[in-house]
Specification:
heterotrimer, A mainly alpha (332), B alpha+beta (279), C alpha/beta (444), A: 332 residues, mainly alpha, two-stranded antiparallel sheet, C: 444 residues, alpha/beta, Rossmann fold, OB fold (Dihydrolipoamide Acetyltransferase, E2P), five-stranded antiparallel beta sheet, globular
Chain lengths: 332, 279, 444
């Protein structure tokens, strides 16, 4: 007989590999390609903003857990680091550091911890941080550096507008989509796809984000339901408008490779805490996000609507979960 | 501009008037008569909503009292005690019978020291669950599991788990003998018993029904059913059934308490404010 | 043949079938056996022997205590000892009949030879009586008295017999070995069940991780009319009755309904082998195959064990309890029961004995639920374990009951999957206990 005392516990007696920690770090790994693209195009600024956001998010989480909530400190689970990274991805690379810190405080302090911490926040923390910064510092938030190739100088780089704001302004000034494309005011689909465009540092490269998305699917961290329904609804709705009038409305491909849709659909909307539980609910959620995004882009005051769309749908999650219960076995 | 002003005032007043009339009609139509005494009685109750009286919450208790005035004696709020019942009686125009103050006692002394741990339980820290899986970390099938279901359900903060003994401790000041712990304990180890004259009482702190040797194997202070206590106090108040002694509260603690405690070879009988004494 | 599987939920835990290539060995008869009188679901059996009685192998020592109950036979020959209680699988003292072994004398009516007997001479009613008499219970682990399944309730008609050769629990290999070594007997047993239920179709479902068994039985089945071998994709908990039915027939048995309402009867391969022995050899259920395994066990093996043998005998034979053993489990790792000692006797329901080190079985500390919904995704019944957990922690039993927690079969997929390490099965079991209490109270 062994010297150890035997343990009694309920079944199951073996456990799976997946933990909260490796889900969070899995998402962080999936974000790395996009981060690399950001560093390549935006240089040192991208690194500064990212490091500042991640470090301050983790720090605020630590301080709040330790001194305000007086609970166990769980910064090693990676959720704060992930929120910080996602926040950074939603900021321009020339964003002032003190504003990044303010954004982190809102992200962690208000959007996450005030609801009770991980798992209890109704809204995606990084998006709340971004929207807070957008409404507080609209100038800084819409002043995008022009991407350069591997420029690590500390000098302020030239700034410009995103494809979506060019589109919005152009349309408002009576230009048609075709004219803008001809004048090369709008970036080509290819550069949008690769990411050599102005924009938040993490959202520019559709291809890098897609790569991350494939990794998440492979690791079974996310399911296809939200990203696919989100992107598909954007394509269908914007496609309908485009078919109706291709001079007033941009084509669907332009819509899905520009702005924050890829980042939003793959990384923000799929946040487990703030999305519905059931596959059916997730599809409804994704379609809602897509619909709202297109509506805001076409009729809203802001050129980009992904963050607002996701936040609005976040608010609907409890409702969706209640209305769309999982199908039970043997029940028609 | 003036038009706008008038329109808004008119619209708002109109909405107000419509809503008010709806409310008026509804309050007339759906009015339910309620004896005002119910509110009065409820006012006096402790608002703990613990259910100790056998009714769902204090309101339910108040309704029951007011609706059945003839059975007033059968109602008791153990939490409020005699003081509250006196006040309730005054409202109802009745006489409250004085009830003896009671307290919850834990009928197990299987501390970590008396009943050493043999097996580790891991998983959700809950007695009912642990009870469904095995006889307990000490091996005693009737002993306290020490996981604190009683602490969880106590509305009055009168219970806590002692870190050294792993047994729940009843706080004499706070216990209202509401009986929540009695109902929740999967092994029925709590008993509501009278606090006794001068707060002196004795009880058998064991409910193990195994034969002596088997009981003793797991716990030093188990009742082994040796009958010695029954020899000291030869009435039905002290009796052994299923190898386990039970001392009923009507035993004469004043004169025999110490002797009964002393008679137990395993120290399974505990006394509160009663000294052990050799006779 | 095209493989099938069930569609809702399911997980893929690591197989760890360490003893899959170890032939079944017959374990020596111990000096004394302790045979519990409650080894099955339902009423405990009533002892019919007393101290000092001489019994032979196969002598009835306790008779069924009701319709849902089962006979118990002596697994050895010798003298009955005094009535006593020892700690059993339940973790509590259980009444046992202990028998001191003297020789190995069998009841004359039992045919001891291993020779295959294909011809089924008994009538359906006689078969059912035989199964009842032999005390056969479901040997997959549920230990439901088998004769009940042969008694078709009024208004139902059997159409097909399903044989469960899935063995979806990791580590266990008892059924796998039995299919390889007693294939013909299993097929005859299946034919017996088909005859008893008056059906002409039998399907044996086997998961693809046992290709040798699938191949072996498929070849043998050519000589048996109406029996089909159905390969199944590996997925836990396919061995669950409802999941197996869904996998093979596509039918979903509603909560509260029985397979027979859908014209089906499901038996484990071990059970069907016992049926063969009872009907063709007149041998009651006195032994079973037990897998003794674990990553640190020196000789993971499959043993044929007499019921009532203390588990320590099996463990000794397999190389003893490894030094770092922290948990001993009876049954599979997903649904088995942790044991308090090695003195516990093997019963009809002991499909395996698993010896785990702390590392194999450690549960990480619980963290906050991140609403990932994986518990719900893997639930084979489409339930919502995260909701159960929240309701149990709030002690909201009424809501919990409305959320269909009682349907849960405790397969453990949710706990296994949960990234926050919530003890979901613990909480569900607790919820069920409290709801049962509530229902009792309501009856009064």
């Amino acid at each position: 007989m062994s010297s150890q005392m035997l343990t009694i516990s309920s079944s199951p007696h073996v456990n799976g590999e997946q933990t909260t920690q490796n889900i969070m770090f899995g998402v962080i790994i999936a974000l790395l390609p996009a981060l690399m693209v950001a560093v390549i195009f935006f240089g040192i600024g991208a690194i500064k903003v990212t490091v500042a956001a991640v470090a301050t998010c983790v720090l605020f989480e630590y301080l709040i857990q330790k001194y305000m909530m007086k609970s166990t400190v769980a910064i090693t689970d990676g959720s704060a680091a992930l929120s910080g990274l996602l926040l950074a991805f939603n900021l321009p690379s020339n964003f002032p550091i003190w504003m990044v810190v303010a954004g982190s405080l809102v992200t962690i302090g208000i959007a996450k911890m005030s609801f009770g911490g991980l798992g209890k926040n109704p809204f995606n923390p990084a998006l709340v941080g971004r929207v807070f910064l957008l409404v507080s510092f609209p100038v800084h938030m819409t002043n995008w550096p022009v991407p350069k190739w591997l420029d690590f100088s500390f000098a302020d780089s030239a700034t410009g507008a995103t494809a979506l704001s060019v589109l919005k302004e152009g349309l408002a000034n009576g230009q048609s989509v075709g004219e803008m494309q001809k004048l090369m005011e709008l970036p080509s689909h290819i550069s949008l796809f690769l990411g050599q465009v102005g924009g938040s540092l993490g959202e520019v490269s559709a291809v890098a984000l897609l790569l991350g998305g494939i990794y998440l699917l492979y690791k079974e961290i996310i399911t296809w339901h939200i990203p696919v329904s989100f992107l598909a609804s954007v394509v269908v709705i914007s496609g309908a408008f485009w078919l109706f009038d291709s001079q007033q409305y941009a084509d669907p491909i332009f819509h899905i490779v520009s702005g924050g849709i890829m980042l939003g659909a793959i990384f923000m909307a799929t946040d487990m805490v703030t999305s519905p539980m059931t596959p059916k609910g997730q599809i409804i959620f994704g379609i809602g996000c897509g619909l709202l995004t297109v509506i805001i882009r076409m009729y809203g005051g802001y050129p980009e609507g992904v963050s607002f769309a996701i936040l609005i749908m976040n608010a609907c999650v409890p409702l969706i979960d209640k209305m769309v219960p999982a199908k039970r076995f043997g029940v028609k | 501009m003036n038009d706008l002003f008038i329109y808004s005032v008119l619209t708002l007043s109109g909405i107000g008037a419509v809503a008010a009339s709806i409310l008026f009609v509804a309050s007339k139509k759906f009015k339910v008569f309620e004896d005002p005494k119910i509110d009065e009685v409820e006012e006096e109750l402790p608002s703990a909503n613990c259910g100790a009286c056998g009714f769902p919450g204090c309101r339910g208790f108040a309704e029951a009292i007011v609706n059945n005035p003839d059975d007033f004696d059968s109602f008791n709020c153990p939490v409020g005690g005699n003081d509250v019942m006196k006040k309730v009686a005054a409202i109802m125009g009745k006489e409250a019978t004085e009830k003896e103050p009671t307290i919850a006692v834990l009928k197990c002394n299987g501390s970590r020291q008396n009943a050493p741990q043999k097996i580790i339980y891991s998983g959700e820290q809950n007695c009912a669950l642990s009870h469904s899986m095995f006889s307990g970390e000490s091996g005693c099938p009737s002993g306290c599991l020490g996981l604190g279901d009683c602490v969880d359900v106590c509305n009055f903060g009168a219970l806590y788990i002692d870190e050294e003994t792993w047994l729940p401790v009843v706080d004499e000041e706070k216990c209202t003998s509401c009986g929540a712990c009695v109902n929740v304990c999967p092994r029925g180890l709590f008993e509501i018993m009278p606090r006794g004259k001068d707060n002196k009482r004795i009880y058998v702190a064991c409910m193990n029904t195994q034969k002596g040797a088997a009981a003793k194997k797991n716990c030093k202070v188990a009742c082994i059913g040796c009958m010695k206590c029954t020899k000291v106090y030869e009435t039905d108040s002290v009796k052994v059934t299923n190898f386990c002694s039970y001392i009923s509260p009507d035993v004469d603690v004043e004169n025999y308490g110490s002797a009964i405690i002393a008679s137990c070879p395993t120290k399974a009988i505990l006394g509160v404010n009663v000294e052990e004494q050799k006779v | 043949m095209k493989t099938k599987t069930f569609t809702m939920g399911g997980i893929h835990p690591a197989d760890n079938k360490l003893s899959a290539d170890k032939p079944i060995e017959e374990l020596e008869i111990p000096i004394e056996v302790q045979i519990p009188i409650a080894q099955h679901i339902g009423a405990p059996a009533k002892p019919v022997v007393k101290k000092g009685d001489k019994v032979k192998v196969g002598t009835l020592i306790a008779e069924a205590g009701g319709f849902i109950s089962a006979n118990i036979h002596s697994s050895v020959s010798g003298t009955v000892g005094i009535a006593k209680e020892i700690v059993g699988t339940s973790g509590y003292l259980e009444k046992v009949i202990s028998i001191k072994v003297e020789g190995d004398e069998w009841e004359e009516s039992i045919i001891k030879s291993d020779e295959l007997k294909k011809e089924i001479t008994l009538s359906p009613d006689e078969i059912q009586a035989k199964v009842k008499e032999a005390g056969i219970v479901g040997l997959g682990g549920a230990t439901f008295p088998s004769h009940v399944k042969f008694a078709i309730p009024e208004g139902c008609k059997a159409e097909m017999v399903l044989i469960n050769g899935v063995e979806c629990e990791p580590y266990l290999t008892a059924d796998h070995r039995l299919m390889l070594e007693k294939g013909e007997e299993i097929l005859v047993g299946t034919s017996i069940a088909m005859k008893a239920l008056g059906v002409d179709k039998g399907v044996i479902g086997i998961e693809e991780n046992k290709p040798d068994a699938i191949k072996h039985l498929t070849k043998l089945a050519e000589n048996y009319s109406g029996i089909l071998i159905q390969p199944l994709k590996v997925q836990y908990p396919q061995g669950g009755e409802k999941q197996l039915i869904k996998s093979i027939t596509g039918k979903e048995v509603t909560a509260g309904a029985l397979p027979i309402h859908y014209g089906l009867a499901v038996f484990n391969v071990g059970t069907i082998f016992a049926v063969y022995e009872a009907v063709q050899k007149n041998k009651p259920l006195i032994d079973r195959i037990v897998t003794v395994t674990g990553k640190n066990v020196s000789k993971p093996s499959n043993y044929k064990v007499r019921i009532g043998t203390p588990l320590k005998e099996l463990i000794e034979k397999a190389g003893g309890v490894p030094e770092n053993t922290a948990k001993i489990v009876s049954g599979g790792p997903m649904m088995g029961k942790a044991l308090t000692s090695t003195e516990i006797p093997a019963t009809k329901g002991t499909s395996g004995v698993l010896l785990f080190s702390e590392k194999d079985t450690k549960r990480a500390d619980e963290t906050a639920c991140i609403r990932c919904g994986k518990c719900s995704t893997v639930c084979c019944l489409g339930l919502q374990p995260f909701l159960f957990a929240a309701l149990v922690r709030k002690r909201n039993w009424e809501k919990l009951e409305e959320a269909h927690v009682m349907d849960c079969l405790e397969c453990g997929s949710c706990s296994y999957t949960c990234p926050a390490n919530l003890p979901l099965v613990d909480l569900i079991k607790l919820g069920k206990i409290e709801i049962k209490k509530l229902r009792e109270a309501r009856k009064k």
